[in-house]
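Study this:
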Amino acid sequence: MHVSFLQPLFDRPGPYATVYFGPAHTDESGAKQHELSVREACRSLEGEGADAATTEAVRDALVRIGPAEDPAGRVVFATGGEVVLSHRLSRAPQRPLAYWAPLPRLTPLLELSGQDPVCLVAYIDRTGADFELRGATGPQDAGQVEGRPHPVHRTASADWSERHFQLKVENTWDHNAGEIAEALSTAYEESGADLVVLAGDPRERPAVHHKLPDAVRQVTVETEHGGRAAGSSSPVLEEAIEEARRQYTHRRVEEALDRFRAGRVGTDRPTDAVEGVPALVEAAREHRIDTLMVRPDGPELGRETWVGAQPDQVAMRRSDARTLGESDPTPVRADDALLRAAAATAADVLIIPPEDDGGGSDIPTGGLGALLRWTYEPAPA
């Protein structure tokens, strides 16, 4: 999960109100329940010490959450009487979650947004393609490309002139496949998508796939469902796209765990993986975290750390935080401090499922680990 979108939260000092809130229902009883849930969330914030202006800003944001625009609800982050960020969720919380803390409360966002890979869908025919991004915020137009308009249709004749025409048709198809592949590669790079799904014409689709650069081809899958024509979308296509996103996430988790197991401390060689809060705090201070791994049921997520105003001012002890230049450090949860550091340094965040959810693993130890941007020599035992 890319968490750089959280950066606005760290440009403003806290404390922060964080509320995870489900959508309202459209009937009368649903509207009443929505109103009661808003009151409950705001009372929780007030009980934890939130100021009146920030609580009111949260209240205004919560009452506007509706089932049409936000089918799974939203998370709202506010401080100083203003909502700093509101983000759409992929899965509704079972009940409103409200927190008032020095840092934004971020781990529930990982669980309620999932890994949420961004998928670039290409709807292809023999004349061009339309591109669409799929992610937590819903479908977004990502451009289009048009190839040569003609000739694009074969004939059934065996006449020499017709065979010549058919050759021109195939040349047009091949040319257009190259044009689509080039435009698709550019859209992939510019959009920051994680994977690509090709839908549409059964002949042009594999031709485009074949012409993609290796790096893009490796994250590209095809589906026989759907196409470029209006009205060709279907529930089967939607499920194919979601399945591609699920498979991508599963592969990423497995690859990361394999690398993590191979690179953990415990060998006598340089390591590119660490686990446990003290080692992660050190890596965060040095901007070495490439992928932060979080197991939401881990027992060390709530372990106390000390932070300053800057994301890399994080330490295990108050005195250590002062040596980093923070005169008045604040105690916070380890997961919030590390997620702040990950967002500030453009690190990725990977959710490791617990064993009963198919993760099959109790690592990283304590629920927190990282793959590093460069290796270091383990300290002598």
Residues 151-158 have pLDDT under 50 and may be disordered. Residues 160-191 form the longest helix (32 residues).
